[in-house]
Each structure stands twice: as C-alpha cells, then as structure tokens.
Amino acid sequence: MAERAPDLLPGTLDMLVLKTLARGPNHGYGIAQHIHRISGEALTIGEGSLYPALQRLLVNAWVRAEWTASDTGRKVRQYSLTAAGRKQLARETRDFGYLVAAIARVMEGA
Questions:
Q1: DSSP readout, 19-82?
Q2: Per-residue pLDDT band at 60 (split at 50, 70, 90)
C-alpha cells in the first residue's frame, strides 16, 4: 500500500510560503515547487491552497506582488517578502517551534 502524504498542520502553509520567500522573490509555481523539493517531495501544495494563502499574505502586507516576465517570456506574478512579513515569519517560526516541542514531549511520554 502506498504511503499517503502527511497533511499540513493548520496555519503552517503561510509560514512555509514566508520562509520560501525569505530566500528571495518567486512566483506561485516556483514557491510550490521549492516546498515540494525541499521537503523531500513529502509536501505538495495545490493551487487551491497556495493562491488563497498568497492572497491572505498580500492582504496582511506580509508580501508584495508585481507582474514580471518569466524566463520563458510569460507574464508571472512575482511575490516578495516585506519587512512586516519577516517579522511575521519570526513569530510563526517561534510559535511553531514551541508547538513541535510540546508535541514531542507528549509523544515521548514526558
């Protein structure tokens, strides 16, 4: 039987997108591909999840977007992290670390 991909914990997609954009500007497909590749192909982000997350990040001013030409000449929407986005990423990283540590303590039977 094939293993099923793990579900993302609620709220982690925004953090993963912000972390990806901390590396530099990228377009939606590039963000999804980076997350998939860096996770060892364990995480696949579909368009139905990614683009609403990007819109949410735009509304919160954690990212900005501009239309640019891709390497192939196609117009793509390029996203980049804002200063507010860097602060949000730091908060989410700290909170996520706290959550993972708490779950680990429960799993270890502490």
A1: HHHHT--EEHHHHHHHHHHHTTT-----HHHHHHHHHHHHHTTSEEEEEEE-TTS-EEEEEEE-
A2: very high
What pLDDT score does 70 carry?
Answer: 82
Please report, as a single letter, which amino acid is at residue 70. Answer: S
Q: Please state the domain extents for the chain.
A: 12-107
Query: b vs e for 13-37, b when ≥16 Cβ sit within 10 Å of the residue's Cβ?
Result: bbbbbbbbbeeeebbbebbbebbee
Q: Tokens at residue 29, please?
A: 């497909």
Pick one of 1.20.1250.20, 1.10.10.10, 3.40.1190.10, 3.30.300.30 as the CATH number of 12-107: 1.10.10.10
Q: pLDDT, tens digit, for every residue of 85-100?
A: 999 999 999 999 999 9
